[in-house]
Design a protein that fits this description.
It is a single chain. The chain is an alpha+beta fold. It has 3 domains: 275 residues, Substrate Binding Domain Of Dnak, Chain:A, Domain 2 (Up-down Bundle); 43 residues; 31 residues. The chain contains 15 helices and 10 strands. The protein is extended.
Length: 370
């Protein structure tokens, strides 16, 4: 080594901490689950789905129930609750955290995916600090030549996003290809029935044809005649026609085509497709709701409708780009599953008798301590 080599400053690059964000990219699970991103696979739209009262009510029950639950972080070894990063409770600081998770739940339910774009990361750990929700309809995927691996994502058809760091996507995966793909035909049938009901509300009688028995009328006269006829029918049930005009009913009434019964059948089918008990959305069901199963309805809703979505959210937030490997994220169900005052008193009485809880501990659990 020469003199110049000894005097030359040797620069070393310190290793940078990194978080595993490989979960942002993944294999293509099914062609059905990505067709909506190619703008060709949706057999129904969100607007059609939300126009059906059954779907709207189910969406609000599932999404709002999950978003109202506290999200906590536990240490895996001890099980104790630790402080959660703000991104877990409030992903987007511009809006309440519950609003972000409501839309996340809807995206998982309707599309099978939910997307958040990273807007800020921690400088020391490179974990996600803030993120904003991106509508699934704005996201396109770029796959390999075999369409088996997702190589990158794009928003609104622009250049591919970075694979990590600010600007990258955090992907929450659902359990299937989403309601709009899986039950699109049923949703569209329901939307058509709603449109039919609206049409009969505007024109309560079967479709009518006004027939001229005299000379042919010009187009402007026909338009004025139909407008006057429609306005009159909305204001009074009686009608008067001149001798040169006849009214001929065409089609069927709502009773004749069974519109109400068809809407009830579709409501039940949509409840099945969504995975929510029919009585939660007031859909016809074969069994009546008794007092005994009414008390366990919250547990039923949790088991069949909420847990599948909750698990996808908590599992994604437990990955290393959000939390350390020694911690896990979960929903706190203690308040949701809390029984009635009588049920709690009976449980406390047993636990106190066997020495598991003291009176002071019970008072603290019931928030009776001043």
């Amino acid at each position: 080594m020469g003199l110049l080599d000894r005097l030359r400053t040797i620069e070393t690059v310190a290793p940078q901490p990194s978080a595993d964000v490989a979960a942002s990219l993944a294999p293509v699970n099914t062609l059905d689950s990505i067709n909506n991103f190619f703008r060709s696979g949706n057999t129904a739209t969100r607007e059609e789905a939300m126009s059906i009262p059954t779907v709207a009510r189910a969406r609000n029950i599932i999404s709002s129930s999950i978003a109202s639950l506290p999200i906590i972080t536990r240490d895996k070894a001890s099980g104790t609750i630790v402080n959660s990063p703000r991104v877990i409770t409030d992903p987007d600081p511009r809006i309440p955290g519950a609003a972000s998770w409501v839309w996340c739940c809807e995206d998982l339910l309707f599309y099978g995916f939910s997307y958040f774009q990273v807007t800020s990361i921690f400088a020391d750990t490179f974990r996600v600090r803030e993120m904003q929700r991106i509508a699934p309809t704005r996201v396109t995927i770029n796959t390999n030549s075999d369409a088996t691996e997702i190589e990158s994502y794009s928003i609104d058809g622009h250049t591919p996003l970075p694979l990590s760091g600010v600007g990258s996507l955090v992907v929450f995966y659902g359990n299937d290809e989403g309601l709009l793909n899986r039950a699109g035909k049923t949703i569209r049938t329901g939307a058509e029935l709603e449109r039919a009901a609206a049409m009969y509300a505007r024109e309560p009688l079967p479709t009518m044809v006004l027939k001229s028995t005299g000379a042919a009328l010009p187009a402007d006269r026909i338009t004025k005649l139909l407008d006057a006829w429609g306005a009159s029918r909305r204001n009074r049930s009686s009608a008067f026609l001149n001798a040169d005009v006849d009214m001929v009913p065409v089609g069927f009434s709502p009773e004749q085509i069974g519109l109400n019964s068809a809407r009830e059948v579709i409501a039940t089918e949509l409840a099945r497709a969504i995975g929510i008990p029919a009585y939660f959305v007031d859909a016809p069901t074969g069994s009546s709701m008794t007092y005994s199963n009414s008390t366990t309805s919250r547990q039923t809703l949790l088991d069949f409708s909420l847990i599948p979505v909750m698990n996808q959210i908590s599992a994604r937030l437990s990955m290393s780009d959000f939390t350390p490997a020694s911690q896990r994220v979960e929903f706190d169900l203690s308040a949701y599953l809390r029984g009635s005052a009588l049920e709690r008193a009976q449980i406390y009485e047993i636990l106190n008798r066997i020495g598991a809880l003291t009176t002071d501990e019970i008072r603290r659990m019931e928030e009776m301590v001043q």
